[in-house]
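Need tokens for this chain, all 269 residues.
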Amino acid sequence: MKTFAIVLYYIAIFVLIFFVGVVGYRLLFGTPCTIVGNYCVGDGWSIAGLAATILGIAATVLGILGAFALAAWWTDLKTKVEKQVDANMKKREKILYKQFDKILAEQEAEMTERYRQDLINISEITLSDLTDTANLVHSLGIEIKSLRTEYDDRGMFGFPWDNEYWAMNVVSEYHQIGPAVRMIDKYLLIVDGFLNGNPSEKGKYMTDLKKSGAPSADFQWFWNAVLRWQELVNSIGTGHPEIVKQVNDKVESYQKRIDEARQNAAHDV
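Here are the structure tokens for all 269 residues:
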């Protein structure tokens, strides 16, 4: 729009100058009057008025064309200003976006580092708590093991019939095979004393047991106690096959000794 208006303006100026030049040439070298017969009708003022009129018209036309050109230039100027403003705004927006992205990245990095540090602190606290818990569990395990050992060792003291109730409760509640094995050993000691004793003193041996608080003076009662505890060991000792085998082998060896003693007693009679 601007280029077309300027080109048109320059063409109009050139055409106007051309016609003014022609008029001027005609005024200088031509006859600026109307020839009537042998006379030139016209005077200086008329010619001057004609020249002024032509120049005035030329100036008016030039002014109108200049106004059009100026309007076109202002229109193009508005477009240029708007483009420049848009370009500057876009440039500022890019700068602001870069600054915003930078600030956002810094904030994100700061928050990430803060969260990481918090996680590390929480992990350390959790690890410390787990360590304390593990130590507590270990201590409790040692205490429980010590308590169970104390319960097992209790079966080594006193007579087995005095520990019947205690041993049965430990085996039933904690599923411990140790007290049952110790009860068998205690009763087998009594059985062994009876089998190894002098036949003439076996009656006195059982009488003394009765006086010591034994539930019975009958040898079969003690042997039945061994068999009863052996059955209990077999029922709860699935996780301890070696112990079960040792107990069964020991009871079986005593069973053979009892059978031999009874055969010998029958033979003597």
